[in-house]
Amino acid sequence: MTAPADPHAPSRQSSLIARAEDLFPGGVNSPVRAFRSVGRPPVVLAAGAGARVRDADDRWYVDYIGAWGPAIVGHAHPLVVDAVRTAALGGFALGATSPSEIILGEAIRAAVPSMERLRFTSSGTEAAMSALRLARGATGRDLVLKFAGGYHGHSDGLLVEAGSGLATLALPGSAGVPAQVAAATIVVPINDLDGVQAVFKAHPDRIAAVIVEPVAANVGVIAPAPGFLEGLREVSAANGALLVFDEVITGFRVAHGGAQARYGVRPDLTVLGKIVGGGMPVGAYGGRRDLMAHIAPEGPVYQAGTLSGHPLTMAAGAATLALLDDAAYEALEATGAELEVGLRSAAGAAGRTVAIARVGSLLTVFFRDGIPTSTDAAMASDRAAYARFFGAMLDQGILLPPSQFEAWFISLAHDRELVAETVAAARKAFRA
Ligand code: KE4
Predict the structure, then answer these.
(1) Ligand 1 atom closest to Cα of 153?
(2) Most CB within 10 Å of its CB: which of 34, 153, 183, 274?
(3) Residues that are catalytic
(4) Backbone phi and psi for residue 242, each to the nearest 5 degrees, phi listed first
(5) What is the pLDDT of residue 345?
(6) Strand, coil or helix: what is 121?
C-alpha cells in the first residue's frame, strides 16, 4: 500500500474525477458509483486483484463492492483471465452462434434445471425486460407485479418504486417513463403475500407475471419471509400468472442453483446476469420450454442483441462457474458467517445499534434496530450513520458499497486475514 508522495498535491485520482465529471453525468457511467449518498468523492479504480482493488493514486482497499456481484472468485482470477485471453485470440464478436455460447448455456441449464431453454443478452436489464415481454406475449396479459425496492434494471416499466440507485438517491421512480407504462406495473411491499393476493383479486385475469428478487438485495439484503416464495408460486399459478425470479444477484451466489435451489421454489422464468459473465457484460433469461418457444425466430415475441452471447463473456462465465463447486459455497458461507459475527461484536463493543442481515455471501449492515423484513423498514435505516461508517472504513482501506441499500459482496478471495482486517477497522469505524 503506497500513499501519494505529497498528500497535498492534486492527486491523479482527483484530476481524473474532474475530467470524468466533465464527460459523464455525475462523472460516472452508473449512478451508484458517484458516492453521492455517502458524501465522499468517488474512487477511480485502476485495477483489482483477488479481494483487493487499487485506486488511481495507488491506494489499495479490501473490496466489498465486488463489481456489484460478478467478482465472486476474486478480481483477475488467473484461470478467468487466461480463458478470456485465449478466446480473444480467436477474434471478438463473430456475429453467429459460437461454441462458447453452447458450453455456457449447457453449464447454466445443468445448474438451474428450470431454465429448460434460455437466451443470452448483454445486461441484466435486457434480460429482465425480455422476460417480461415474453410473459406478456405468452399470456396475452398486460399487467406486471413487482415489489417496492426490487430492482430489475432500468427498463421503463421496471423503474417504478425500484431499489438500488433509486433507493440510494431517494427517487420514487424515473422521469421519462410515460404514465401509462408505469400504470402497467403494480407494486407491493417485499414479503407482503396478503398484498399480492389483494392485487390478483383486484385485477382478475390481467396479471402476466410476478417478478421478484427471491432474496431482495437492492434495499440492502432482505431474506424472503418463511413461506413467502412458496406463496408466490401458488398464488401466481392459481391466477394464471407467470412467476419470474430475478436472480441477477442471487444466481450462482446464494447456491450453485441460485435462490430457487436454496429455497426449493421453481419459477416459470429466471433472469440471470453478473456472475454468469464472470465480470464481462452479460444477462440471460430462460425457463419453461413452452414459454421460450414464443421467442423469435420460433415465435412472435421479439428480442435481439448484436453482442448477445459474446465469446469473451461466455469464456469468462464458463471459467467462473467451473470454479464454483460445493467447496466454494462452503467457503463463501464460512467467510460470510465469520464476517457477520465479527461485525456484530465490533458494533456491540462500540455500543452501536445495527442489524446485520446475511444470506450466504451477501450481507448488509443496517443502521437501525432489528433486521428489516419489509421495504419500509429497510428504507428507514439511518443513511447518515451509514455514510459516516462508510467514510471511516474507507479511510482504513476497506471499500464498502457506497450506499446503505446495496449489498456487501464477499468473494472466494476474502480470506480469514482480510476478514480480521475488516473487523478491526469496523471496531474503530463504529465508534466514529
Ligand atoms: P444490469 O443491467 O445492471 O446488468 O442488471 C440489472 C439488475 C437486474 N436485477 C438485479 C436484481 C440487479 O441487482 C441488477 C443490477 N444491480 C445493480 C447493483 N445492485 C447494478 C449496479 C449499478 O447499477 O451500477
Answers:
(1) 6
(2) 274
(3) 151, 246, 274
(4) -90, 145
(5) 98
(6) strand
Residue 247 in contact with ligand 1 by CB distance below 6 A? no
Q: How many residues are there in the chain?
A: 432
**What per-residue confidence (pLDDT) applies to 104?**
98
pLDDT of residue 1: 47
Instruction: Give the three cell numbers for residue 356.
Output: 446485520
- What value, to the nearest 5°, has the Cα angle with vertex 135 and ends 130 and 141? 130
Q: What are phi and psi of 293, to 5 degrees?
A: -70, -15
228-238 and 193-202 are packed helices; what angle lies between their axes, rounded to 10 degrees? Answer: 10
**pTM score, whole prediction:** 0.97
Q: Using CB atoms within 10 A of its CB, is residue 350 exposed (0-12), middle (13-18) or buried (19+)?
A: middle
Q: Which CATH class is domain 80-322?
A: alpha beta
Contact (CB, 8 A) for 309 and 106: no
Over the stretch 340-356, which tens digit does the pLDDT of each residue have?
999 999 999 999 999 99
Domain residue ranges of the chain, discontinuous segments joined by +: 80-322
Cell of 320: 467462473
372 touches ligand 1 (CB under 6 Å): no
Does any ligand 1 atom lie closer than 6 A to the CB of residue 243? no
Name the phi and psi angles at 273, rounded to 5: -175, -160
